[in-house]
Write a structure and sequence with these properties.
disordered N terminus, Rossmann fold, seven-stranded mixed β-sheet, 343 residues, single chain, binds 3-phosphoglyceric acid, glycolysis, 12 helices
């Protein structure tokens, strides 16, 4: 893995801006570069022009800093004292189902149809933000649907750390180039927001747009409950929870879990069923147990990830935050540092 290779290097630091996925020779080492648009900080003892195959990688900066593999916005600065002490063996994982959407309000099956929040959904998102306002967030993952993205951005308006969540645009070279930020300080005060369709709500097939009550009247309550809450029975031409899990849980394990392991505190804003499939994985629920798992809109759930294990720390049921989250010692320290910083 590039990470392992990078940790073997010694000396000052050489920053390379790669423009394609390839290898480059840094001194006498061959370093694998990450896909386009990622910055590689590799440790090396001298400056120069290094080439790999046909491409040249210009040295754009030499400085002494931690060896790390960073995306444009993926690593808060280690000089940021409020956040840095959280980089030990325990990180926070917050899951939020989006606030009420316009089709939730109309009781329509929504699935992957991209509808926005209602006023109530906006209020729920802001209340969710208040409840997580003292919990560290280094990265945010959302689905590609606006209701989840609105929920994340509205919630972060309440966060006391006041970092700016910025949706990353890596869909192509132009998007990457046109959304580039040219200030390290500004990057340090930002939180990368990564969107992925793999976190989308389960695709409800031929039920999308139908009224849930009318559908139950037509097909029977039992059948509709089976489509909505069973593990392996899909709605007509739609996804079962199992099929949704195959993309959502795979995305979590391949993309989010490595960030947790590297010490990042993560917020995921997604959907009732894509989150049910992830919670089934986190809590090791059986296909029977997951049937009764229901998620309310806009209610944050807190997990602590420690020594490779996910420990659920409760989620707010009371109208106030106090007594709802079982703060760990480190979360309490983080909150104290925010208090000190803001007083
Ligand atoms: O997609 C929808 O209709 C809702 O977001 C979730 O629907 P469900 O609670 O019926 O699964």
């Amino acid at each position: 893995m590039a990470n392992a290779m990078l940790q073997q290097t010694v000396g000052g630091t050489l920053q390379l801006l790669s423009n394609s996925g390839t290898h480059c020779n840094v001194g006498n080492r061959s370093v694998r570069l990450l896909p386009k648009g990622f910055k590689l900080e590799v440790e090396f003892s001298k400056r120069g022009i290094y080439s790999s195959g046909k491409r040249k990688f210009n040295v754009i900066q030499a400085s002494t800093s931690q060896t790390s593999v960073v995306g444009p916005l993926l690593a808060p600065s280690s000089s940021d004292t409020v956040d840095s002490h959280m980089k030990s063996n325990e990180v926070a994982l917050i899951l939020i189902r989006h606030g009420e959407s316009l089709w939730n309000e109309k009781n329509l099956f929504t699935g992957c149809v991209d509808v926005p929040l209602t006023n109530k959904g906006v209020e729920e998102a802001i209340e969710a933000g208040h409840r997580i306002s003292n919990i560290p967030v280094d990265m945010i993952y959302t689905s590609s649907l606006i209701r989840a993205q609105m929920t994340a951005m509205l919630a972060m308006t309440q966060h006391r750390r006041k970092k700016v969540p910025i949706i990353l645009h890596n869909e192509d070279e132009r998007a990457r180039a046109w959304s580039k930020i040219y200030s390290e300080d500004t990057i340090e005060q930002s939180i990368p927001v990564i969107t992925s369709w793999k976190l989308n709500e389960r695709m409800y097939g031929e039920l999308q747009g139908l009224n849930k009550q009318e559908t139950a009247d037509k097909f029977g309550h039992e059948k509709v409950h089976e489509w909505r809450r069973s593990y392996d029975i899909p709605p007509p031409n739609g996804e079962s929870l199992e099929m949704c899990a195959q993309r959502a849980v795979a995305y979590f394990r391949d993309n989010i879990e490595p960030q947790l392991l590297s010490g990042k505190n993560i917020l995921i804003s997604a959907h009732g069923n894509s989150l049910r499939s992830i919670i089934m994985y986190l809590d090791k629920l059986t296909s029977q147990e997951v049937i009764t798992l229901e998620l309310s809109t806009g209610i944050p759930m807190l997990y602590i990830f420690k020594e490779g294990k996910f420990i659920r720390r409760g989620s707010p049921v009371a109208p106030t935050e106090a007594g709802v989250y079982a703060y760990t010692r480190r979360l309490a320290q983080y909150r104290q540092k925010l208090d000190d910083m803001l007083t």
